[in-house]
Amino acid sequence: MTRATFAAGALLLAMVRAPASAVAEEQFAPEQIKRGASIFSQNCAPCHGPHMADPQGAFDLRTFPPEQKSRFLNSVTRGKNQMPPWGDLFQADEIEALWSYVMAGEKK
User: Fold this and answer.
1) What are the CA-CA distances from residue 9 to residues 5, 30, 32, 38, 70 (Å)?
2) Alpha carbon distance 33, 35 (integer Å)
3) 3-state class of 27 per DSSP?
4) Region of residue 10 (left: phi > 0; alpha: psi -120 to 50; beta: else)
5) Is the separation of the CB atoms in 62 and 108 below 8 Å?
6) Does 7 map to a domain?
7) Is residue 43 part of a domain?
8) CB 12 within 8 A of CB 74
9) Cβ pair 107, 62 in contact under 8 A
């Protein structure tokens, strides 16, 4: 198990144990959202579309449920369906930045 995979797994476990009320109150620093947007643009946009807005692409992340953060972390880390696992490529803080962008970024 790589250090990145372990860190992502630990982060995933911590998020699963977070109370649901914390999801609604989650705040993101503008710098974190910007970093997530940059990571998304370089790595995720080819499938999910620029600004998460490709109706012909993969899952529309603009509609991702905020209470399902653990699902997001698991999908990014381990992959899902046609999406490859990114856990060995991204550090835990980069996955958190992606989460902040998906939650606070380009909404419908």
Assistant:
1) 6, 25, 20, 23, 10
2) 5
3) coil
4) alpha
5) yes
6) yes
7) yes
8) yes
9) yes
Q: List, in sequence order, the alpha helices (H) in 1-108.
A: 3-16, 20-24, 30-43, 45-48, 69-78, 92-104
54 located within any domain: yes
CATH number, domain with residue 36? 1.10.760.10
User: How many domains does the chain contain in total?
Assistant: 1
Whether 77 contacts 55, CB under 8 Å? no
| Residue showing tokens 């998304």 | 40
Q: What gap in Å lies between CA 19 and CA 13, rounded to an integer?
A: 12
Please list the pLDDT of the chain residue by residue as tens digits (108 residues).
666 555 555 555 555 445 444 444 578 999 999 999 999 999 999 999 888 887 677 888 999 999 999 999 999 999 998 899 999 999 999 999 999 999 997 765
Residue 50 domain flag: yes
Instruction: Tell me how crowded residue 101 is: count the other CB atoms within 10 A of its CB.
Output: 25
Q: Domain range for residue 86? A: 3-14+32-104
